[in-house]
Amino acid sequence: MSAKTKNIWTILLFIAAANFLLISAQTVRAQDEDAPRRLWDSAFLKKRAEAKTPAPARKTTAYRRATPKKTAETNTASQSQAAEQADGEMIGLTIFRLRQSRATDSKDSRLLLIDESSKEAEWTPERVEADTVFALNDHLRLSVESPRDGYLYVIDRELYTNGKTSAPYLIFPSLKSNNGANSVSAGKLVELPDGQTSFRLAPYLSNPNYAGEHLTILVTTEPLKNVEPGKDPAKLDEEMVAQWESQWAGSTERFELIGGAGKTYTKAEKEAGQNGSRALTQDDAMPQTLYHVDVKQGAPLLVKVPLRIGK
Q: Domain of 156?
């Protein structure tokens, strides 16, 4: 075989090897990109009831991973990780940033809310991703969806620029909402705050170091002891909350709905969240953000959500 022929064969082999590596990389990437879809499909969507009347065909819902992917050094580690994920659960959160309604907004996407001056005005909620940097005085509403039966608790603390937080306050359950009832189930939305109000991202007391809010969302199998809701946010014991977070917080991954940010409130979300007149089905909009938490079966599900403002 001549030197020229050898060179040609070497080039061809190199091209073939490069193509093989490229195809393999594309396959791995495709599998990785599809992983969020497999997670929500098996661990969240199917927990909802099927729609009685099938909706018109719509685009397949897909999520992107918003936190670094877990890596496994060996096959054994990979299998162990898969087992952990199988034991984990997902909880859905949609953060709505409010803007004043426009004439072009559907009436189903509008809310009649009362502002700080006790005046009624129409606002339109728009989805945002959980890591959005908000502006001071932005108005928000939240909807939480649990994939399991249990009891929901939402704790809020102010965030400060030095990394510290305020004392913890229980903002759900509240005696203003269903007389303090806080049971949840798949497809049942809990929208906060209750009634014609919204959260305003501003310090309770004027504080130049204010940097946002820090939420802790808890779903437990049994009601928490020594936790009594009030008409106003109830101050909680800091050591007790710290113990919950230390004991129950698991490794968490976040997934964001592709194409979801900027979408307005749907009629189904409004009916499910405003008065609980219906539960969401598999044909309704999915949460904007899904948190996958490594947690043992039956253990409390705990997620921390910072809401940060820009300076």
A: 44-308
Q: What is the pLDDT of residue 30?
A: 40
Q: Is residue 271 part of a domain?
A: yes
Domain total for the chain?
1
Over 70: is that where the pLDDT of 304 sits? yes
Query: What DSSP assignment string belongs to the chain?
Result: --HHHHHHHHHHHHHHHHHHHHHHHHHHHHHHHHHHHHHHHHHTGGGSBPPSSPPPP-PPP-EEE-SPPP--SSHHHHHHHHHHHHH-EEEEEEEEEEEE--TTS-GGG-EEEE-TTS-EEEEEEEEE-TTPPBPTT-EEEEEEE-SSSEEEEEEEEEEETTS-B---EEEES-TTTGGG--EE-TT-EEEES-SS--EE-S-SS--TTEEEEEEEEEEESSPPTT----SSPEE--HHHHHHHHHHH---EEEEEETTTTT-B--HHHHHHHHS--S--BTTSPPPSEEEEE---TTSPEEEEEEEEB--
Nearest to 38 by CA among 292, 240, 252, 287: 292
Closest CA to 122 of 139, 143, 134: 139
Task: Give pLDDT tens digits for 52-65.
Answer: 776 665 556 789 99
Query: Six-digit token pair at 113?
Result: 């809310």
What would the pLDDT profile of 251-289 be if each residue is shown by its tens digit? 999 999 999 999 999 988 988 887 666 888 888 889 999
16: in domain: no
Q: Kindly state whether residue 227 falls inside one of the protein's structural domains.
A: yes
pTM: 0.82
